[in-house]
Amino acid sequence: MMIVSASGAVFLIAFDPVTSHSAADETATTAERGSVVASTDASPENGDSRANPIPRGVAGSTPNWTVEIDRVSRGEEARQLLELDRRLLPDTGNGRELVAIGLRVEAHTTLGGDQILDGKSFSLSGEHGVRYDALDLRGVPKLLDTHVEPGGSADGFVAFSVAPDETNLILEFRPISLSDQDDWIYLAATEGASATAIDPGIEVAPDGGLDTTHPAPAGSWVSTGSVAARVLKTISGADTRAFIIGALHGDPEDYPEEQGFVAVQLEVANVGEETGFIRISARAFEVASDVAEIREALTEPPILDARLYPGGRTEGWLVLQVIDEDLPALVLRGARPGEQRYLHIGEG
User: What is the pLDDT of residue 330?
Assistant: First the structure.
């Protein structure tokens, strides 16, 4: 079995580690950033970035692990392969499709003791620039969730819920283990996959949404320079609570009948210049009012919570708690004073 390391060199088992770093931090726009220091080796198969993933049929290696993609299935085929009950996949009913990726892994760590490997060590990205976390489906025997002894191996699947038209799939591997030596490596999950520059196709008016008196109307983009957003739809009134509980999978106890709520559908995009991903969630927003607040009780799609690479864009919902029918402006927070932008919610 041919193994390509993150430095591009070919080995049978392991390789001298190339130091790289991944960072995640929270800013005022809750931008969770991940970055990879590129190898000096210019090999097109080094797996050190989404632009140069390790091709199908070739295993990738970190200092402690070897990983190879065995198969990729989608949709109903994936569900049957994993023997999943449809009720375990509530988010696939919200414009998502199940993807199952079969893996073979080997542990060649020198740390000693069993190493844990499961879906938390993997993510998936594609043509839309969205970074998908693996599904946490407990009690599914075929999913990868194992303790591997040094020198041992295991087989299993990782599962994702992705946009149904998502192509150019790239699997990202960063083991959650006892070692901080393991770097990100990227493997092509579809033949010939490679990340390319994405043009989000967004036009932002230079003076759009600069203050509360002139918030950007629904459908119009505002931007802080790294994050762009626009309101797609607002649901308010007597039927809002039922919509939140039904379509948004809200817990009825989190949305008492005696309180007022507004549901807002947003489209967001990463328009920054950094190469890593950013996380955009409800915490990237606030309301321009002392008598309303964002409720962060939703936990699953179509909640607004996305990790986007440059050019990536997606949609999601957030919920406001309000006390009257006078809806406040929604604020897209900036990293520095003066970068915030204002969005009109409601009709007109």
Answer: 95
What is the Cα–Cα distance from 43 to 67, expressed in whole angstroms?
Answer: 19
Rounded distance, CA 56 to CA 101, Å? 12
Amino acid present at 177: S
Question: What values do phi and psi take at 299, rounded to 5?
Answer: -125, -5
Distance CA 53, CA 72 (A): 16
- Alpha-carbon gap, residue 219 to 26, rounded angstroms: 27
SS3 label, residue 324 = coil
280-295 as b/e: b if 16+ CB within 10 A: bbbbbbbbebeebebb
CA 99 vs. chain centroid, Å, equals: 14
Mean pLDDT by runs of 10 across the 348 residues of the chain is 41 25 33 31 65 93 90 94 78 76 87 79 95 89 88 93 93 75 84 89 86 92 94 93 93 94 96 89 93 88 92 94 87 89 83
Cα 333 → chain centroid: 20
Q: What pTM did the predictor assign?
A: 0.80
DSSP 200: -
Token reading at 184? 């990100």
Tell me the three state secondary structure of residue 311: coil
Read off the tokens for 35.
């970055």
- Provide the token pair at 209: 């949404």
**Alpha carbons 148 and 249: distance in angstroms, whole number:** 36
Tell me the C-alpha distance between 151 and 173, whole Å: 19
Predicted pLDDT of residue 94: 60
Distance (Å, whole) CA 37 – CA 227: 23
Q: In the prediction, which pLDDT does 294 show?
A: 94
Report how far residue 114's alpha carbon sits from residue 105's, in angstroms, rounded to the nearest whole number.
13
The count of C-alpha atoms lying within 13 angstroms of the C-alpha of 330, restricted to the half-sphere facing its C-beta, is 32
